[in-house]
Amino acid sequence: MRDRSISTWLAVAVLALIVLSVAASPWVAPYPPAEQNLALRLAPPSGAHWVGTDHLGRDILSRLLDGGRFSLSIAALATVLAGLVGTAIGVLSARRRGWVDEFFTRTNDVLLALPEMVIALFIVAVLGTGFPSLLLALIVTGWTPFARLARALAYDVSAQGFVQAARVLGCPPSFIVFRHVLPHLAAPMLGLATLRFGHLLINVGALSYLGLGVQPPQSDWGSMLAAAQPYAMRAPLTILAPGLAIFAVALCVTLLGQRLAHMTGSQLLLSRTPSRTPADA
């Protein structure tokens, strides 16, 4: 138990350091991220360039901090929006039941059966590259776990005595949802959101690596990986730095998310809850 607490606090400390550094990048970055110096192409780490330079002589640390702002922001925004959409759909399915529940349940099953990257690639290919299409792709592929968990929890809460009493007293459905159902969903959904953030961050990096994310001159960790691939043998840090950044954030968030999920029970519910409840039988 003590080892788990140590790993959790270590993950929090590392994650806080990365997030604060990225957020303060306009003030703490040693160089402008787009500043080129062809005389220092693929330079090794030095006192002037702590992580070296890339193939255009740009400071890797500065680009790492600047690119992290986009990678972390888009992953966080996609997690929040996917969580809101999934929670709304899950609660609506549990409340309305009938054909509404059937429709969203089948849609959820189809999306869960398909690889997320295939769906994301299709959306970006149809809508084109850029921030809006990337965000939409992440939301479409990210809302299903939230809906599945929210639906199961909403079913359980709706069967409780205090909800039945509220119905008998004539409380409107909207009051019951906001006063009784949603508060009981908050903690488990937060645990799930923390777990999903790391997953969506990896998806952001993968799509950007394929050239379907942010476009130059803006950079993120995925596009840095793609640009550094031809020079990985000559200057390993050009590809190791963004790769380790994605790995570190995803690992820390996953450790934190597992701790929160253990405390709230959301991980257990998500792993054991079928897409259809016994009430549907």
UniProtKB/TrEMBL annotation:
Domain of life: Bacteria
TM region(s), chain numbering: 70-92, 113-139, 190-211, 231-256
Principal subcellular localization: membrane
GO biological process terms on file: transmembrane transport
Domain ABC transmembrane type-1 residues, every copy: 68-257
A cellular component term, taken from the record's GO annotations: plasma membrane
Entry-linked InterPro entries: BP-dependent_transpt_permease, MetI-like, MetI-like_sf, OppC_N
Keyword line: Cell membrane, Membrane, Transmembrane, Transmembrane helix, Transport
Membrane association type: Multi-pass membrane protein
Keyword Cytoplasm in annotation: no
Subcellular location: Cell membrane
Gene3D superfamilies: MetI-like
Entries under Pfam families matching the protein: BPD_transp_1, OppC_N
Family statement: Belongs to the binding-protein-dependent transport system permease family.
Protein name, entry field: ABC transporter permease
